[in-house]
Amino acid sequence: MTETFKNSCVLSPSFESPNPAKVPPLQAPRWLAAMWKKVLAVLLGVIVGYWLIDDFNPDVVQGKRVLITGGSGGIGEQMAYHFARMGASVIVTARRENRLQQVVARCRELGDKSAIFDYIPADMSNLTDTDRVMNEVRARLGGLDYLVLNHIISAPLGLWVGSTENLTHLDKLFDVNFKAYVHLTSHALPLLTQSNGHIIVMSSLSGKIAQPFTIAYSASKFALNGFFNGLRQELKMKNCDISITLCVIGFVGTENAVRELENFHQDFLLKSVPPEDPADAALAVIKGGATGVRELHFPYFSMKIVTILRDIVPQTMELFFRQVYQLNS
């Protein structure tokens, strides 16, 4: 019945009005078209301005209690120094105790005399260390406002051939780069719930776009995105005011990153993509975490454009990365 009704409302292609009249196509007035162009220009300016305006106030960090994993070097070390300058109390954890001592000594020089600066040697491949670290943080700081998950295990570049070595490395990499993040977060949730705190998760462009020679590492970063994006939704469903900031980080000139590329003879990549300063990356991450940004891109425009193009022209982006990570004989 419905179909018959629909068909009865459709004119036959052969139907013609006995007195056809030419109706000129509707055209928008010139003033209206010009007005829309201006409106679009203003909206674009507002969006760009919103991205570029820095509304971060360092005072929001003063007096806060911070745990940084992977704090013995690179971006983690620089975050410790920035947090110290802003008046926060900081505990850093990593495997290298001598480096942790140096980082803490520098934090004490930069930070408030009343703040607490300390370190906890820990190996994140041993998942029982995650509980021990959080217990010590509770005892030393009395609570927690910022959990900064920054540690990684080095991922040597190379083709995936399905070897025993590949599989063994995959297991260890997931323990350190994914499972330890989940365990630390789980142990920290009661403290962060009390403080309405922040979780900062250091991910990577490799967690948005799979890249050659880093398959296992990329998979661990994709896993982080899946877990923490889901956790964010569950926290909101429980009206729990803990922010989660996922950081999509590009090529930063840390000692480990540059060394791995040099060892694998990625001369083209090193020459064509200038590395970002770890201190700049660290400051951007803190700003994003403190303001509760859902997803931070650094450097902003290059990382944002690449992630947008990933969904529009995926094959082109894959070709681009194959060319960047050239296969050396």
From TrEMBL:
Keywords for this protein: Oxidoreductase
UniProt xrefs under PROSITE patterns: ADH_SHORT (PS00061)
One family name in Pfam for this protein: adh_short
Molecular functions per Gene Ontology: oxidoreductase activity
Domain of life assignment: Eukaryota
Protein name per its UniProtKB record: Hydroxysteroid 11-beta-dehydrogenase 1-like protein
Domain Ketoreductase residue range list: 64-255
Family matches, as InterPro entries: 11-beta-HSD (IPR051253), KR_dom (IPR057326), NAD(P)-bd_dom_sf (IPR036291), Sc_DH/Rdtase_CS (IPR020904), SDR_fam (IPR002347)
GO biological process, one term: lipid metabolic process
